[in-house]
Amino acid sequence: xxxxxxxxxxxxxxxxGGVAQYLLQEKMYKYDILIGSSTGSLLxxxxxxxxxxxxxxxxxxxxxxxxxxxxxFVVKHKNDVDVVTINHFNVLLQFLKGRRTFGESKKLHxxxxxxxxxxxxxxxxxxxCDVIVTVTNLSKNDVEYKSIKDFxxxxxxxxxxxxxNYIPFxxxxxxxNNEYGDGGFSSLVPIREAINRGATxxxxxxxxxxxxxxxxxxxxxxxxxxxxxxxxxxxxxEKHDITIGKLAAKNKNVKLNLYYTPTYLTNNALIFNxxxxxxxxxxxxxxxxxxxxxxxxxLQ
Length: 300
What we know:
Elements: E1 2-6, H1 13-25, E2 33-37, H2 39-49, H3 52-59, E3 73-78, E4 81-86, H4 88-96, H5 106-115, H6 118-125, E5 130-137, E6 142-147, H7 153-163, E7 173-175, E8 178-182, H8 191-196, E9 201-206, H9 222-251, E10 255-260, H10 274-299
Parallel strand pairs: 1-2, 1-9, 2-5, 9-10
Antiparallel strand pairs: 3-4, 5-6, 5-8, 7-8
Helix pairs in contact: 1-2, 1-3, 1-10, 2-3, 5-7
């Protein structure tokens, strides 16, 4: 059984889409299992259907206005660098309403339904492959994996949306008497879950560089500092997931093919810039192609 795992990474998911496009269209891989965490959850239903062009269009045309109905960010472009500051009005509005998050991302929920139809859901649910999204149950302090086989259309769209909700900047969701958030908080790179479900070879797209190339700048204001702190914590989750995944693969003789981003893409993956995301998609495709050619040369 072959599995595709795509990690969390916000707007960097565009790079993962490019990698997956090469694997699906050029290598002609057929996946029995597709597992996504956070932004990976947005990609995998369309990839499982083979609708690469559709998800490319949807993914590279998304912007902040299609994600947030209450946007906690103000993005300023200074000296070719995107600087993130707090939207004081929107955050204050959230506090006055008694909300627990700085922003709300209900528009993303609507966008998911606009781009992933019930007809496509039924086609995918009845197919041979299993599509699984990762969510974090904050009430139980645990990770949960939601298979498309176990839910109806509305429920599965909920889980995709929940998997992407990077709290406290996006919506906190109450469901089944529990509160949920971004899957990346508990399982950013769910390699072990793919292996536990029977995968014998796993293609893993990791939306981060394998090693930190240069020291990153730390936030210049409390808001951006909080984002940087969260990213540092998620990097530790990522390393843990990869280590555990490699151990599980070794114990069960599973082949892992790891696709890291070769360069540092952005210092804030919550900024969705259409032009940059188109570039990252192409970079992902080219990287997968070059890596595949290099692996072929080494085997000769």
